[in-house]
Amino acid sequence: MQPQKIVLTTLPSEGEFVNWTTPKFFDPTKVNKYMPLGILSLASNLPEKYETVILDPSSEGWSIDQTIEKIEQEKPDILGISAVTRRVYALNEILKKTSPPYKTVGGPHATYHAEQILEKGADSVFRGPIADLDFKQAINFLPKGIIDCQTKINEINFPKRELLKIEDYFPRESLLFKAENRLPLFSSIGCPNKCVFCNVQSKKIQFKDPKIVVDEMEYLYSIGCKSVHVLDDNFNVGRKHLRGILEEREKRGVDFEWSGRGQTRTDLSLTKRLADNGLVRIHVGIEALDNKILDFFNKNENVEDVYRFCESMNANNVGILAYFISGSPAETETYRKQLPEKIRELGIKLPFFNILFPEPDTEYYYSLLREGFYKKDFWGEYLKSPTPYFEIPYPYGESKKNEIIDYTNRLIEEFKQK
Ligand code: B12
Predict the structure, then answer these.
(1) Ligand 1 center to residue 202 CA distance, Å?
(2) At the top level of CATH, which class does the domain 5-155 belong to?
(3) How far apart are CA 13 and CA 170, in angstroms?
(4) 52 φ, ψ to 5°?
(5) Which CATH superfamily is domain 174-358+395-415 in?
(6) Beta carbons of 334 and 290 less than 8 angstroms apart
(7) Probe ligand 1: pick from 169, 186, 205, 383, max atoms within 8 Å of CB?
(8) I need a labelling partner for 241 at 20 to 30 A (CA). Which of 88, 123, 307, 383 fits?
(9) Where are the domains of the chain?
């Protein structure tokens, strides 16, 4: 029987494993909703003949039971779940307790755990950073097992935001900076860097055609967005890509506010033109201002890059939201004491302090196992039978943990917008 109704859903945060990376003060999801671009993209590339319902328990704050109830009420022929590893407990509960005839899963968690997702009750798993056309095709014959996605980023339509209540996703509060009616888009997928703390889905980058990117920016503007955030894994690593978007905006006379998430090693000769063209801020993973710590993180930058980057952005009034990570064993007492002054010297007005966390499937976690900080494979065990709100032990001992949390909170206090 041909499927008629499809429900696509994010996962609720209930039961997600404890993650001490982002101190409460900074946790953006506590105040703002994030548009689930993944399932929105899937829905925007499906034939109209299907009735497609998007559920976003992640933003709605629904519990697992409420999410199951909503899914059951919809009685879909196909249930599609977008999975992140920290919410594997909720994923397994929903796979176990919902009754759609065909259940499929995709998203970051599928990258390394497709077999396990099948064992937990999924009929199929879509593995890969872009699945739109693979999913569209699969609906006709409902395959079982793992599908390795072949969809290319320039073969798909961009996400139709009107499939959701757009105004619900405009930021309600702005913690660090004002950006009216800000909405995200992705102009590329993947990052070639090998930072030890990150398990990005794809190390191979796919860039959207700049014409499509600026089409999408103009579309967002037409639906009430006043500030577009290019929320890529790394939007400015590709110099040709960045220049392409800039030239396309200049050619069309598009100059409304935009920002992006990227790195310090980029084409700084473009900074003035980017600033003149409405780029107001770059969210950048600086992480530390010491080459020993940057080496520990295996960052694709050194302190000289950071100074050149900040000088160029400050000279052209492009705001710098800089992510810093405290807690690496390469840190010294002197470094910690000097960090606030160094940040001020660099003219970084929006420092965002995170704490080093051993995400699953990262080189950092594997190094902790290899070097004996962890005597057993905590994540391996947890993923076999996830329990709610699991907390992995702090690799350097509880007293060290409290010391790092106190130090990071003092940094936050020091830079809190007076
Ligand atoms: C936006 C984003 C955020 C936002 C919003 C998160 C939210 N609540 O929605 C913010 C900045 C808040 C955030 C925070 C964090 N994030 Co984040 N985030 C992203 C980011 C950059 C983009 C997601 C996106 O829109 N991608 C674009 C869409 C098109 O891609 P997609 O969602 O993957 O969907 C495609 C495919 O995966 C597939 N697919 C996806 N779902 C489904 C479902 C089905 C049925 C099918 C068939 C296919 C399919 O098809 C889709 C379309 O082609 C990703 C990186 C990435 N490249 O995905 C990281 C990412 C998802 N985040 C990650 C992490 C770890 C975090 C943090 C935990 C980091 C931290 N420690 O603080 C926090 C958690 C905060 C919280 N409590 O929610 C990891 C997740 C890794 C994992 N294995 O789960 C990622 C992958 C980054 C990384 N390390 O690589 N994040």
Answers:
(1) 12
(2) alpha beta
(3) 20
(4) -110, 125
(5) tm_1862 like domain (3.80.30.20)
(6) no
(7) 186
(8) 307
(9) 5-155, 174-358+395-415
